[in-house]
Write a structure and sequence with these properties.
- This protein is an alpha/beta fold and about 500 residues long.
- The protein is about 30% helix and about 20% strand.
- The chain is built from 17 helices and 22 strands.
- The chain has helices at about 5-10, 55-60, 85-100, 115-125, 145-150, 170-180, 195, 200-205, 225-235, 245-255, 325-340, 345-355, 380-395, 415-425, 440-450, 465-475, 490-500, and strands spanning about 5, 15-20, 25, 30, 40, 65-70, 80-85, 105-110, 130-135, 160, 180-185, 220, 255-260, 270-275, 280-285, 320, 365-370, 370-375, 400-405, 435, 455-460, 480-485.
- Strand 17 and strand 18 form a beta hairpin.
- Helix 4 packs across helix 12, helix 14 packs across helix 15 and helix 16 (about 465-475) runs parallel beside helix 17.
- The longest helix has 16 residues, at about 325-340.
């Protein structure tokens, strides 16, 4: 963060300085009183269990020079207190103000699954030419995203920002703060369907990511997703265009759409996909988009302005990824499309993708005592569970394939059916054993049993019991997928397996 004066901050959030020097320099912002830096601003958020206003003095003790406050209580007149009506809204206002100081383009990444991996791949491709700011950890929410904006500085050329949502109206708030000029939608699944009720409502909410678009902005969509593909295939002015708020519809009608995937119509398409030796390889095919002729200008009978090139730059290039899974092919296509939009040729962008490695608990393949473990324990959705199963099947040299799957949360009344559908998916594949953890995940095992698949199933209600069964039964040559919602703490299982003595 580049330094701001306390008076600038107060003006940006419509706050009032109650005490302290208005010229105090602020060089960072934090919400955890224990982790404040020197010359920082502490923002005390009010949660369900605690009110961080109680820790303002701790924040000052740990280096903070100023704080927001929703109270009229001052305990240290030597420090800057900025009175605001709502500390969360003030944080968002500050993030919005600070982002507006930088003209750099922001690419927003959203979707029901694959946001983080896509964000990392896009950043890897763009990083071949630019200094990239990218979302760190899980800073993709109404709290995390404005904090990420506050990490911008003049040394950055471009930003790749993950944007998550769990309720109606949230994406519009995030778009107002980050103001992306390009956006990637990875897919429309059932994550957060408990709050939004239908996939169509999830699509409507996620499309609000384009609310800050200007003319020439690009929406990159997964052409393999049934709902997203309709955006591309249907006439934008047609009756079949999806439900949107008026602001989003206006932006959508003026946006350029680029589809990526394996379908024939996709602008960036993968063919000849091969997975071996821990790598995924495919051939990139690019589609020439037709351009409408200008008035009174001939298109030479080609449907294009000027002469159409026989081949497009990057068409036919082999792309190499050091990760497995069809979902990663899709993620890589999105990265290549975004990179080329920002003037990085495929021949250069693909080198960044080749160096990409999954981050912790996001599909890392680890090995101990000749047992391979896919650590995908950070989070889960029904769709990402299916993708995880596909990666398990791609592991080479495996004698027994074991899936350890825990509850996926926030699925509401559809939870049982969503988990059951995962079980149906598994029942049709060559998995040897499935271990489920939690009440909801037990529906995965039930589906496998109902389909009479030749797959061993075990149902547990907690990690401890699952580990107690799993450890004595692991043998050299086994491959294990571990996946579940973050609240299920399935990283405990990964840790136990990796620490198992031979």
């Amino acid at each position: 963060m580049e330094a701001l004066r306390a008076k600038e901050i107060a003006k940006a959030v419509d706050g009032i300085i109650l005490c302290g020097d208005e010229n105090t320099r602020i060089t960072s912002v934090g919400i955890n009183s224990r982790n404040m830096e020197t010359d920082s601003l502490f923002i005390p958020l009010i949660g369900e269990r605690a009110d961080a206003h109680d820790y303002i003095e701790d924040a000052f003790h740990n280096g903070a020079a100023a704080c927001f406050t929703g109270r009229d209580v001052i305990l240290n007149k030597d420090k800057v207190y900025i009175r605001v009506e709502d500390t969360l809204k003030a944080l968002q206002a500050l993030g919005t103000f600070y982002r507006s100081r930088f003209p750099m383009p922001v690419i927003g990444i959203t979707g029901s699954a694959g946001k983080t991996t896509t964000k990392e791949m896009v950043a890897a491709a763009l990083g071949m030419k630019y200094n990239v700011l990218k979302t760190e950890g899980n800073m993709n929410s109404q709290v995390g995203l404005p904090l990420m904006m506050l990490r911008m500085d003049s040394g950055h050329d471009i930003a790749v920002i993950e944007m998550g949502m769990s309720e109606e109206g949230e994406m519009a708030k995030l778009a107002e703060i980050a103001k992306p000029e390009a956006a990637v939608v990875t897919n429309i699944g059932v994550s957060h369907i408990a709050q939004l009720k239908t996939r169509e409502n999830i699509l409507k909410e996620k499309l609000n990511i384009i609310n800050s678009f200007d003319k020439g902005s690009v929406l990159f969509i997964n052409g393999n997703d049934d709902l997203l593909s309709k955006l591309y295939k249907n006439d934008k002015n047609g009756t079949e265009s999806p439900n949107m708020c008026e602001q989003t519809r206006e932006k959508f009608l003026n946006a350029d759409l680029t589809a990526f995937g394996t379908e024939e119509y996709c602008d960036y398409r993968a063919e000849n996909i091969r997975m071996a030796g821990g790598e995924t390889r495919f051939i990139l095919r690019k589609k020439q988009k037709p351009e409408l002729p200008l008035p009174n200008q001939s298109d030479n009978g080609t449907g294009f302005l000027g002469k159409r090139e026989d081949s497009l730059p990057g068409d036919g290039e082999e792309i190499i990824l050091k990760v497995l899974g069809m979902h990663n092919v899709s993620n890589a296509l999105a990265a290549l499309a975004v990179a080329e939009h920002y003037h990085i040729p495929v021949s250069v962008a693909k080198k960044g993708l080749e160096e990409y490695q999954p981050i912790a608990m996001r599909g890392q393949v680890k090995e101990v005592n000749r047992v391979k473990v896919i650590d995908d324990s950070y989070n889960a959705s029904p769709d990402s569970m299916k993708s995880g199963i596909d990666v398990l099947l791609e592991l080479e040299g495996i004698k027994k394939r074991i899936a350890v799957l825990a509850d996926v949360m926030e699925l509401g009344e559809l939870s049982g059916q969503c988990h059951y559908d995962v079980g149906v998916y598994i029942s049709e594949r060559k998995v040897d054993e499935v271990i489920t953890i939690g009440k909801e995940a037990s529906y995965i095992a039930k589906a496998i049993q109902d389909k009479k698949a030749d797959i061993i199933t075990h149902v547990f209600m907690n990690n401890e019991d699952a580990v107690h069964y799993l450890l004595p039964n692991i043998k050299a040559g086994d491959g294990i997928l571990v996946k579940g919602s973050r609240g299920m703490k399935t990283d405990e299982i990964v840790k136990a397996v990796l620490q198992k003595k031979q």
